[in-house]
Each structure stands twice: as C-alpha cells, then as structure tokens.
Amino acid sequence: xxxxxxxxxxxxxxxxxxxxxxxxxxxxxxxxxxxxxxxxxxxxxxxxxxxxxxxxxxxxxxxxxxxxxxxxxxxxxxxxxxxxxxxxxxxxxxxxxxxxxxxxxxxxxxxxxxxxxxxxxxxxxxxxxxxxxxxxxxxxxxxxxxxxxxxxxxxxxxxxxxxxxxxxxxxxxxxxxxxxxxxxxxxxxxxxxxxxxxxxxxxxxxxxxxxxxxxxxxxxxxxxxxxxxxxxxxxxxxxxxxxxxxxxxxxxxxxxxxxxxxxxxxxxxxxxxxxxxxxxxxxxxxxxxxxxxxxxxxxxxxxxxxxx
Length: 308
Description:
Blueprint: H1 8-32, H2 37-58, H3 72-95, H4 98-105, H5 108-119, H6 127-143, H7 145-148, H8 156-179, H9 187-208, H10 219-246, H11 249-254, H12 258-270, H13 279-294
C-alpha cells in the first residue's frame, strides 16, 4: 500500500475515471427520460454483474478465495452501502436542485479523509491535505454557485441531507475497502460483491418507492443504460477499486470533485447546456486544491552530524 503522493500513472488513470464519471451524469439524464431512476440503477448493477462474470470466465480469472479470506462480511456490507447510497441519492435529487445535490454528494472526499485518518495508518490527514480539500471544494461550490441559490422547494432540506448521506456512504465504502480484508482481494471480487448485493436490493426498492417498471426502448435511453452498466459500473469501478487498493484513498477521493466539473463540460458539449460565469475561476480553484492535496509531504530535515 502506498500512502504518499499519487504517481503520474495513478493521476492519469484518476483523471480518466473522472472524465468517464462526468459523462455518466449526462447518461443518467438521458436514461431518466425512459427508465425510472432506481430501476435504472438496479438494471445497471445487474448488467455490470453479468458482464463481469462472463468476462472473468472468458479470461479464466477467478474471484479469489472469498469463502476463506475474510472478505465475505465486508464485501456484503460494501454492497449494502452501495445500494443505500444510490437510493438516498436518487430520492434526494428528486427533492432538491441538481446544483445542491452535487455539492452535498461531493462532500464524500471529506468523509474519506476523516475515515482514513482514523482507520488507515499510512493515510493521515495533514494540514496541506485539509487545506487542499477545502480549496477544491470551494471551487466546486463556485462552479455551482448560481444554482445553489435558485428556488429549491419546501422539501429541499431533506433532499440535501439525503445527498449528503449518499456522499457519506460513498466515502464509507471507500474506507471500508481500504481498511478491511477487501484491500487484499482482487478488484474483480470487490466489484462483484457490490454488484451482486446491490442489484437485487435496488430492484426490490424500485417498486417499493412507487416506481412503475417501464423501459422506453429508444436508442438514446438503451445506449445510456448500456454505458452505465458496461463502462461505469463495470470497467470504471473495477479500475477504481484497484486504485484504492494500491494508493492513498484520501488523495484518490479528492480527485472525485473533478467529476461534476467534467459533467458540466460534457453537458455543455453534448447537451448544449450553458457554462456559468464563474466556471473558469472554479476550475482554477479545484486544480489548486488538488495540487495541494497531492503535494508530497515534506520530509524532516536531516540532523547535523555530531562532533566526536
């Protein structure tokens, strides 16, 4: 395990993940036009689980000694946290504005930093890392500043709290993977736990929350669902869990604030959505904050040799 600054390879992979996840925000909007949201999340996990099992069988990749390696308990818990996270997120987004939902959801890096500080010995919260997180989060708030003060409805506070809960569960899952036996398990095993547990739970929760099971078979809707299942819940999450097992969880999680930034850019390019007037300054703050988070810790100066 490496708790220091992220090397260029990890930085490049994390930027790729944030770009892919940012496009997922657009895919979710397109999918919601023909599939109820919690049902969409359940179908996404189901598709990803089937594809993961098929790919591992084709490549003759096993899932490790999951019956005896101590990962079953934390793996099931990770899947449960994953399912509740998305239920809270989808319900919360329906009660508040998208801008407020994004800001509260991406409080997740703070939960990761605090959990890692107490539970992961080589991933302590330093002063530079804390300042970097605050600066990056300030940039995120600036990017969505105009939407934060838009009318949000009478139940917006409940929606905000649910989105904050979703961020806390996201952070808790990341720390759980890093601080438990899951950190030694293959990334495919960690991912299968989440998918296999969350898929039935989300599919059961969908009708209980009043959703009607109906899928409009339009190309954009089906394409968005396949993208979420194969690329997001499949390939990108496998890469994410591998990164978490190898590098500092708090530094990796800090980079997730780039996801909504990329989402805004994707919305502007693909959906014609306008960029806010403060977007450039917001992006600069986010970059500065991430630089502070990932700056190598200063090593103590060597003491002068004593005269004999």
